[in-house]
Amino acid sequence: MAAPVVHFEILGKDGTKLQNYYKQLFDWDINSDNPMNYGLVAKSGEGIGGGVGPSQDGSSSVTIYVEVKDIQGALDKAVALGGKIVMPVTEIPNMVTFAQFSDVEGNVVGLVKSAQ
Questions:
Q1: Which CATH fold topology does 69-116 show?
Q2: What is the pLDDT of residues 33-63, one digit of tens each?
């Protein structure tokens, strides 16, 4: 696959409640031992890892993240095809570089820079 889905994110008003729900529902190993209470879901088997936690504005959302070599190029292409930038390219040093756009139906999709 040219641009694989590599991460998912489930956010809501009560991150701890969501984490407990998904731990019980799917027996996910979720580690939220960090100041943001962002629960990292361990990758298991053939699945991908992800995150479950609180949203900044209290809204609920599910987002997939696609790995690309050129985040800005992908954002530009998304806009040219009728999408809109939700979050510009953002770098969290020593962790991740990512961005988000909404597609032509308003679905939010995340982009993650590949390590290459």
A1: 2,3-Dihydroxybiphenyl 1,2-Dioxygenase; domain 1 (3.10.180)
A2: 998 899 999 887 888 999 999 999 999 999 9
